Amino acid sequence: MATTVTVAQSIGYAQTFGGYRPLTVGTSSDPALTAANIILQTIIGPPFIFNWNRGSVTLNATAGTQDYATSAATFGFIEKASYKVPAATITNTVATGGVATYTAANTFRPGDLVTVVGTTNGGGVFNITSLPVNSATSSQFTVLLNQTVGTAGDTGTAVVGTTTEISEVLSVIGTGSELGSPAKIAAQVDDNAGNITFRLLPIPDRSYTVEVIFQKRVPALLTSTANTWAPIPDHYSYIYQWGFVALMMAYNNDSRWQAASQKFVSSLLGVAEGLEESEKNIFQAAWLNTMTEQQAVNLKTTQGVQERQAL
């Protein structure tokens, strides 16, 4: 998706509402540049989630280990997470006495429902769907199968169960001792060098493949009015333009900032995916506080100037 609109273009648009007063003062191009960064961080920060800002990382969880340090340079915050038992690659099959034995490195357990595809020994009789594992070791597993087929080198894939969503995404998780399948996940530590340590609870009781879907962080703050609004795509420009205009109006003590702010908030909430009403209410309150603080700062500045002029 294209991102071509620059901060300079937004400044030009905002100036039309304020008699073309300058919005870039000094070498830092403020207040316009700081205002643009506030809007950028607001749109991309939590709780907002967008399909154009989504990434993922895979954790190879092992039995007895709670924390997993992973390179994730673009990580912002967890959106969803899920786990599954790793698939096993079959190298040999044999069936005798009503028991089929598959040779494959695995972490299966008796009672797991296993599906096997891709085998050819015995005309494909070892391809099964959701049959319970009868017994398992780290190198073999068996199922009850009313067949007799000689041993043969074979190929295929065995999959146990389905992918299960991790039900709770938390900010922090305490050290645990209980073992089981993961029910909670947190981005426990960010070393500010592109590495995230994820913590699971319960501690995995066997190997799992964990997929973490996340929203990306702001890649870098805007440093020039020539910067675009990346990574926000152009077709969302109507959102950040109103947010930027609202802040610039507040800076100029223009009472129309409230109407612009409402347009920004309603537009942003209108496209945000999967927000609860409580999250929407929290955001609206936080944004109102931001705008009110901006107004208070500007009022004090104006009063100070007026007092100095009166002396």
Textual characterization of the structure:
The chain folds into three domains: 7-45 and 218-292, no CATH class; 51-84 and 163-216; 88-160, Beta Barrel (Elongation Factor Tu (Ef-tu), domain 3). Helices cover 28% and strands 32% of the residues. The protein contains five helices and 19 strands. β1 and β2 form a beta hairpin. The two termini are 56 Å apart. Residues 301-311 have low confidence and may be disordered.
Describe the structure using short key phrases.
elongated; alpha+beta; 4-stranded antiparallel β-sheet; Elongation Factor Tu (Ef-tu), domain 3; about 300 residues; 3 domains; disordered C terminus; single chain; 7-stranded antiparallel β-sheet
Short description:
By secondary structure, this protein is of the alpha+beta class.
Percent of sequence in beta strands: 25-35%
Helix-strand pattern:
HEEHEEEEEEEEEEEEEEEEEHHH
Number of DSSP strand runs = 19
Summarize the amount of helix as a percent range: 25-40%
N→C terminal distance = 56 Å
Unreliable spans: 301-311
Query: How many helices does DSSP assign?
Result: 5
Helix- and strand-based class? alpha+beta
The radius of gyration over CA amounts to 28 Å
Largest sheet: 7 strands, antiparallel
What is the overall pLDDT average?
92
What is the topology, as strand order, of the major beta sheet? 9-8-12-6-7-11-10
